[in-house]
Specification:
Blueprint lengths: L11 H17 L6 E4 L1 H13 L14 E5 L26 H8 L3 E6 L32 E2 L15 H8 L5 E5 L6 H7 L2 E4 L20 E5 L2 H11 L30 E5 L9 H16 L3 E5 L7 H16 L18 H12 L2 H13 L6 H21 L5 E5 L8 H4 L4 H8 L4 H6 L3 E8 L5 E7 L5 H15 L9 E2 L2
Parallel strand pairs: 2-3, 2-5, 4-13, 8-9, 8-10
Antiparallel strand pairs: 1-3, 5-7, 6-7, 6-11, 10-12, 11-12
Helix pairs in contact: 1-2, 8-10, 8-11
């Protein structure tokens, strides 16, 4: 499903056959829990509507008829959007978010909504109302001999979060591409753990209209695909100003990214930030990082060590800003206008309290409490204001770096995907602090970043690296990622894992 030539006008029968193949793959992989809502019947109807339109053609349109998975926090008209929460368990939006609407206008077919951590607050794909999502690369480990079993109850590798379901759907070849949201790495980390490409574009390049917010100033719709070319196809379809979202840039019109297959990257200046050599980074990740830097230098790039001095404070800065905005955003869920409502009539205050106690999990409630504490009059300047000032310094670090280099090369995660048993022992705050250490600075600075799979570890688990460029420089980012992808030739999951029929 992930790459199909469009040299001729595709017929309705061909598209329905491809859709049936995708549905069969989802049936085989269902125990991975990638989807929370499936829309195969509606997808078939959408194919019929698509093929009746003369305005959408398959020729020279790589997205035509391709299956699309959408994270469960993007509004989709007529399809439940619950954010993996009890609060919105019955919420069916009356409209479709801009990014999905634009992809549908290009011919993509939504086949389902993917699992996530509740309200996108998590980094493992475990903190939602849905069942824990499993990483399909678990069964590439030697002890499984490449055999995936639906009945397997053995310990599994996590897919990362909070867009874990979207990454799993792409890795398992069920869909061409998937949408996720990236607040501090929630697209890039799952992409890295699942061996696929994950892009966080420049903040403001993609519309957030219809994306249920977590942290308004950090949230960014992201794209997950198997290849850089597919990622570019989807980016070109959704990027650009949206009149429904005032935070999208309209002063500089988006120019579609043009990919160029090159044998050399002579003249490209690559920076390796010394602060990204974190103490807990695995030796395998460090070795891959060094090997790739050496290969890029051999291919003509200039590689130099640089400094982003305020990186060491970024996770604390990110956490304070995250919790403060979560407290503000979650205030809308009071049981009055929409969402879950507790069965109490004692008082209005009791209704608010009981509703939120029943419908928010411990992680969400904990962030609300912390955010309200930081925003107290006595604490505002000490915490929120200081974090806002620090964010400006982090942004200036990136600006200074990009005055001397074109691209930054960093790890995405400290190591390979952790086992569920070890990851679940950690408290959510510790989980996120470990998982987001290399990814959240890009969100704080608003710069684009992409996770590219490089090679497999000794246990056959994906190891990825991250590329970062200056704002609105997706052209350089994606072309560098394309060169890196072709240089590394990362294997397909199907070469290592066979799913039971």
């Amino acid at each position: 499903m992930c790459s199909r030539a469009t040299q001729h006008t595709l017929t309705q029968a061909e598209l329905l056959a491809a859709l049936a193949k995708a549905e069969l793959l989802q049936l085989k992989w269902r125990s991975l829990n990638a989807f929370v809502t499936e829309c195969w019947d509606q997808a078939c109807k959408d194919v019929e509507i698509l093929t009746s339109k003369s305005s959408v053609c398959s020729e020279n349109n790589p997205l035509y008829g391709m299956p699309l998975a959408v994270k469960d926090n993007f509004c989709t008209q007529g399809v439940k959007t619950a954010c993996a929460s009890k609060m919105l368990d019955s919420f069916v939006p009356p409209y479709t978010c801009t990014v999905v609407d634009r992809l549908q206008n290009r011919g993509m077919i939504v086949v389902g909504k993917t699992s996530m951590d509740s309200f996108a607050m998590g980094s493992g794909g475990m903190d939602g109302t849905n069942l824990p999502t499993k990483n399909p690369w678990t069964w590439a480990a030697p002890q499984y001999q490449g055999k995936f079993s639906k009945e397997s109850d053995a310990d599994f590798r996590i897919p990362g979060g909070s867009s874990g379901g979207s990454a799993v759907a792409v890795a398992a070849d069920i869909v061409y591409g998937a949408l996720g949201s990236d607040t501090g790495g929630s697209v890039r980390i799952p992409a890295a753990y699942c061996g696929v490409v994950g892009l966080k574009p420049t903040t403001g390049l993609l519309s957030r209209h219809g994306l249920i917010p977590l942290v308004n100033s950090l949230d960014c719709p992201g794209i997950i695909t198997k290849t850089v070319e597919q990622c570019t196809n989807m980016l070109n379809a959704v990027a650009g100003h949206d009149p429904l979202d005032s935070t999208t840039y309209h002063s500089r019109p988006f120019k579609p990214v043009q990919l160029h297959h090159q044998d050399s990257i002579s003249g490209l200046k690559i920076g390796v930030p010394q602060e990204y050599l974190a103490p807990d980074t695995s030796q395998e990740v460090i070795q891959v990082w060094q090997e790739v830097a050496d290969k890029l230098e051999s291919a003509g790039a200039s590689v130099e060590r640089i400094s982003l001095p305020h990186t060491q404070y970024s996770i604390a800065c990110y956490s304070v800003l995250n919790y403060c905005e979560v407290a503000s955003n979650m205030a809308r869920f009071d049981g009055i206008e929409y969402g879950h409502r507790a069965a109490t009539d004692e008082s209005t205050e009791a209704l608010y309290a009981q509703t939120r106690h029943e419908a928010f999990n411990d992680v969400v409630r904990g962030r609300i409490f912390a955010g309200n504490y930081f925003l107290l009059k006595s604490n505002y300047e000490k915490f929120y204001l200081q974090a806002a000032k620090l964010r400006r310094l982090i942004y200036q670090d990136f600006e200074k770096a990009f005055s001397t280099v074109d691209v930054l090369l960093t790890p995405v995660a400290l190591g390979v995907a952790p086992l569920h048993s070890s990851f679940s022992r950690l408290e959510n705050r510790a989980q996120c602090a470990q998982q987001d250490v290399f990814t959240q600075p890009s969100n704080l600075a608003g710069v684009p970043a992409i996770s590219v799979p490089i090679k497999l570890s000794q246990h056959n688990l994906p190891i990825s690296l991250q590329l970062i460029t200056n704002r609105f420089n997706e052209q350089t980012l994606l072309n560098t990622a394309l060169f890196l992808e072709s240089m590394c030739d990362f294997p397909n999951l199907s070469h290592y894992v066979q799913c039971d029929p």
